[in-house]
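Run log, item B.
One chain of 1005 residues. Sequence copied directly from the ordering sheet:
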Amino acid sequence: MPERLRLTLDLAQTLLRPLPLEERLQLALDSLLREPWLTLEAKGALFLMKGGRLQLVAQRNLDEPLQRLCAQVPLGQCLCGRVAQEGAPLELSGVTEAHTTRYPGMPPHGHAIFPIAAGQRVLGVLNLYLAPGQALSPEARLALEEAAGLLALAVLRERAERAARVLHRGARLALEAPSHLDQAASAYLKGLCALLVEEGYLLAWVGEKGPGGRVVPREAAGAVGYLEGLAVRHDETPEGQGPTGRAIREGRPQVLRDVGADPRYGPWRLRAQAFGFASSAAFPLWVEGEVWGALNVYAAEPDAFDAEEVALLEDLAGLAGQAMERIRSYARAYQLAQVVEQVPESILLTDRQGRIFYANPALEAVTGYRPEELLGATPRVFKSGLHPPEFYQSLWRTLEGGGAFQALFLNRRKDGRLIAEQKILAPLYGPGRKLEGYLATSRLVTREYALSRVQAALLHFNQRFLREGFSPGLALALLQEAREGLLGVGGLVLFLKGLDGRYSMVAASGLDLAPWRGRAFPAAELYPLALPASQGRLEGEAHRALWEGLPPEVQGLLQGEGLYARLEAGGAGGEALGLLLARAQAPLGPEVEEAFRLLASGLEMVLATEEERKRTAFFTYHDPQTHLPNRLLLEEEAPALLKEGSWALGLMEWQGLQGEAWQAHFSLARALLAALRSCLEFPDRLYQLGPGSFALLLQGGKEAALRVEGCLERALKGLPLPPGGAAWLRVALGVALFPEDGASLGELLRHADLALAEARKEGGLAFFNPELARAHRERQDTLALLSAALEGEGFRIHAQPIAELESGKPVALELLLRLEVEGRLVSAGTFIPLAEETGLIVEMDLWLLNRLRELDLGLPLHLNLSPKTLADPRLLETAALLRGRPLEVEVTEYSLAQPGVGEVLKALKGLGFGLALDDFGQGYASMNALVENPFDALKVDRAFTWGIGQNPKAEAVLRAALDLARTLGLQAVAEGVETEEQRRWLLQVGYRLGQGYLLGRPSAV
């Protein structure tokens, strides 16, 4: 066999061996260098084109400097670069200036260099060494050219296989994505990056075009640490000028030949070099017509991405985009399937004959049928019988015309319950618009249907109620309209409670009314009041308890499922107004129960309003507790009653049992009220004006009043009074007669009130007389004078001296307040008691205290203060303004019995004022009170002074009072000294000071 043919066959077998390409290339190079007939040196190299450079992939016997210098050879550089660039063989017999790659001590040699080419495309270079001056034979040259061709075929085959392998594996990654569609895209992209790293790239990652110009890394493989904290953008910022940003922005591949030289790679250069990256490329990922992101790969050598590599990666990126689209499509299909399976609306598919072949799970919740139960059945299983034939005729006309039919369906569940569904039915078409079946989707609207119907019924009911008021006919209209929305309810009955506490049927819808007519049921017979809830479904024990409590007529009408509502005023636990009952043959759903409760609440509100209106009208004219007519009704009724005959108007009180006391003694008050009613005869009237206060209109005048008063006295004696009750419980009745004492109700009331004031003094009965009116007028006139005096100049200040009994020399002055009217003084006995009674005395005392700031009479002043003034908080504030003035405050023994007076006296003493106990001996003060309070003087009451020479007991009291004063260190003053005999006696027993007309009368200051 010729040597050249054998060499060709050996090389072909070597290059077809199942080994990596670079190993096969090395074996082929070794085979060539072992052939002696080729006259080659045992030295050579084999280069492949990579990214625009020649990359050393196999060598034999190259020394270390050559391996290093020739690892990467640019096109056109040195001998190999020129062959790769020009595509023509080169043969040299020695080292010449064409050797640009040389090193000191390089041995002499020659070269036979052949391009590894496919047509015009140079794939690499075969560089063989020759001995100096040696040349190839024609046969050897032809054999080596054939060898270079075989090497080119091997490289082409390897690259084709690699491309096919990479693309095939990329396609399988999409197919092998996990079944969880939310993870499929992530798993695919992660596998794609791992595939590229397996093919020799240092790093592969996928970035998504994010919002705000950011590129968000999604998946990566290889040197993933490079991505930590990496800032990459797809806008025009510096971080958007790298391959990734430009690929996304421009939508085409971007190749970075040299990381160290390209200025656009500045933001990442140092990081990339630290990870050993010399070049990179980015490829846009087109998904559904838009750039979704970019596929990025990094190589360790510069200019690693030639056109062939870029084309392969571009194909892979295109494949990735298609895979993403397919994954998205699968995801949408899966989501759609999940929607159908999980949507709360029910979905039903039938064939052309109406047989069900699919039902989603939601249908079971709506209808109670499991999907598998419905397969092969027809939708007639849901039919309720509530739709007329015309309804279904319209349905089929629409479907047969190719349209969608929408309507509210009243259907029946598997358990018999009625439901409302909003349905859409439509034809299902296959290819070529061929009818394949029908689709039905429905939304459960039972609650909305029931509530809306009941709400509409209540709206109409309320509108008519406001116009017409409540009536049985209005209640019946409500029940009839509301029952349309209460699906499954066959009958409604409304009972209302009457004034006698019994319940009568007011309205019924859907039931035979005959058994109810004329019947009124006690509450205990109609329903047990101890049911656990005021509204709701009757189940179990509660259902049995209610049904057993119903009379047979009610049981017969309400057999089956039931609902009830106890209608109450003021919410749960309030006064019962009525009862609403519902009957159904099949179970009622919670939506119907809710609508029923709404109906009951609406009825309850209107009935409570009606009840409140009646109550308001009643209590406008009646007392809320006793239900007696009040003053307003008295004023409306009296004018008509007083037109004829003689009448007595009486105002009556139970003395000691008024106001809060009347409320507190409820049982006694009830007994007294019963007694009062028993004393009246027709047409007498009784009115309550307040707690324990009443007005009586008695026909018959004075005789009727005497009769009632006597009756009350007898009734009072017969009542079981509480301990001591007879001492404080008395009748006070003031009467004015018509027409003698007044021609109008107002006049009679005023005169009866005056008579009542008189009756209060002793109890019993008092009739009005003109003298009472006169006294009342005087009283009112005096009060008016006092009020005017406080505001003007009506008061006058008088002073009476307190003097030495022996010399008559004044030592102090007691200030007295007098009222002047038209130049004359009104007696103090006329206005002082009235001022005490009305509380005006406090204003008078404070008025006098304020005037003392302007008054200087040259002697210490005494001022008597009322007990009411001592209790007024303004006293100490006003007295503080008089600090330092020679003033002695006089208080009566009665004041000491009032709570808190001791603290006030001590405060006055602290302000520097003297204290005197006035009218000593009247019997109110205890010796302990005299000891505990800081008194300076004791003024003995005038009644004892007037007894000198006439009453030895009075004289004894005077001596004892003086001894007591001396013992307690108090100054003793005898009041009421009017005769010389009294003065001498007082001096004789030891009194030094006195006060009275003998020593000085009050005079104006």
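Observations after the first pass:
- Confidence is low (pLDDT under 50) at residues 527-540.
- The chain is about 40% helix and 25% strand.
Flagged for discussion on Thursday.
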